[in-house]
Every structure is written in C-alpha cells, then in structure tokens.
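User: My collaborator sent over this chain with a note saying "see what the structure looks like." That's all I know about it. Can you take a look?
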Amino acid sequence: MDATEKLTKNAIKPDGESHIAIDAEVCRTRCTERYCERVCPATLYEWNAEADRMVVEYAGCLECGTCLVACREDALSWRYPRGGWGVQYRYG
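Assistant: Without extra context I'll predict from the sequence alone. Here is the result:
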C-alpha cells in the first residue's frame, strides 16, 4: 500500500472551529511566495483572488504542521484541534 492509499484510510472528525488562523494582512502584504499552498500535503490552502486573501479548509488538515514551518512571514497561528477532534491515523 503506497502513502496516498494509506492517507485515504484516515478518519477526520472536524472541529467546529479552525485550529489554523491566518493573519490576512500579513499574508496579503508581505508574503509573495505562498509556500503554504505548495507544502500542504492535503492541498488545503488556496489563494482567493476575489477576496484577496488566503483561505484554508482546516477540516481536512493532517496536523503535520508543515505549513507553519514553511510560512516565512509568521502569518499562520496553529494549534492541535481539541481532544477527540481532528485526524485519526490508521497507519501511523
């Protein structure tokens, strides 16, 4: 079983509130690379040109924290979802 197939076996119980916060002003004015769009293994980040802001579909987050490490402008705040919520890995 390859990694992609293993990821499809995970269960995600979405929390009612996002565990990822984006400082829209910092993201809009200082970030030119948008690494979060490229590094998120679940491809949850997307630049919304109409709203002129980055959006994240937090409910599918794999809780790896890669986006937080990649964000060079410190535009992201991240914490684990509350207990009992979030991703449940089936294959480690």
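A starting point for your reply to your collaborator: The two ends are 13 Å apart (CA to CA).
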